[in-house]
Amino acid sequence: MLGAFVRAFRTPDLRNKLLFTLFILTIFRLGSVIPAPGINSAAIRDQLEAVQQTDAAGVYALINLFSGGALLQLAVFALGIMPYITASIIINLLTVVIPRLEALKKEGQAGQTKITQYTRYLTLALAILQSTSIIAMARTGQLFQQQIPVSSYMPNQDLLTLVTIVFVMTAGTGIIMWFGELITERGVGNGMSLLIFTQVIATFPSAIMTIFQEQEAWIFALIVIAGIVLIAGVVFIEQAQRRIPVQYAKRMVGRRMYGGSSTYIPLKVNQAGIIPVIFASSLLYLPQLAIGLMGQESDNVVVRFLSEYFVSGSHPVYMATFFVLIVGFAFFYVAITFNPTEVADNMKKYGGFIPGIRPGRPTAEYLDYVLTRLTTPGSLYLGLIALLPMIAMGASGATQNFPFGGTSILIMVGVGLDTVKQIESHLQQRNYEGFLR
Length: 437
Hints:
This is Protein translocase subunit SecY. Keywords: Cell membrane, Membrane, Protein transport, Translocation, Transmembrane, Transmembrane helix, Transport. It is a multi-pass membrane protein. Pfam families: SecY. By secondary structure, the protein is mainly alpha-helical. The protein folds into two domains: about 1-205, SecY subunit domain (Preprotein translocase SecY subunit); about 215-395, Orthogonal Bundle (Preprotein translocase SecY subunit), CATH 1.10.3370. It has 18 helices and five strands. It has helices at about 1-10, 10-30, 40-50, 60-65, 80-95, 100-105, 110-140, 150-155, 160-185, 190-200, 205-215, 215-240, 275-295, 300-310, 315-335, 340-350, 360-395, 405-430; strands spanning about 240-250, 250-255, 255-260, 260-270, 350-355. The strands form two sheets. The protein has a three-stranded antiparallel β-sheet. A two-stranded antiparallel ribbon has the order 2-3. The termini are close together.
């Protein structure tokens, strides 16, 4: 592995891409520790460790994860990449139901550029909404559940200061989008995925150290071993795929013979990736946000119900709801991203067929059957991976700092494998031995 890195840096253009990517990621992390105007981040850092021992961070746990801990420090990049993720998900869903967006998707590069522009606008709108919500909760003390005095970290609460903070956080989201696009165009790997990856691993060392300090040596060793086994299992499942063989018949076009080749359609066991977990987490984040805004001590029947079942991540009702949502969203997302009928029609158009299956509708039915059988274990796998850290936190008494969270592991493994494969392809183009031997 180290030798492959050396060979990668010896290739001039690949070395430039890697250095450029590292440079952008460094600036990105710096923006995650620079406080927004009017915020005393030192006061937050002094008491943040004590706050995270409670459920105070649970309201914005997912956003805080994707911001690398910048949210609870009210930094310039406090929102992280979450507004862009949410906007991308919404646009993908709207593409299915809005004919105009579906037509743009089929127009190729020009249509995709237009959809990307719509995603940027929606990202900024969501950033304004989220930053306003966060500042409102910080101003009333709900963000930290009254654990830190508001006057200590937000001494000046006049309208101009609050508007400036919202503007800076929204601008930070715009800069993050620009960083992601720069990495995709001039660096190595998918820019947005690498930014998420960077923010997730940023909190990993401190979380490991927290467990080391809080738990006994044998419990710490057991957690680390379990984490390594979990990562190995996730790598195995993420790489697993069903290859459906496809043959193309020979056909004469003019004086040339085309076709006669064999290929395959790779269908992954986890075809949906991390998206169902994000969907489910986002939905379960809404009742927690409502509780935070309305107050956990409210006499409202709905608030009392949500406070009883959806505040603690270790509650059986919460975990069961989380699991069902992940499974449901996995089937839903696969259904809107992979259309068996469209794939079968394209195969038939170019003279392709699956051996033993008639072209057209029988091929579409066969693909749908195989995809359903693959998505079933894939969705159950996602649900179990997401629930494992909740069960572990309840059993070991760990806090929100528990490092081997399902979402964290899936992001780290998925993005890591994808980036390594891209570097591998660059090396193979120059006849060098790559990472994957």
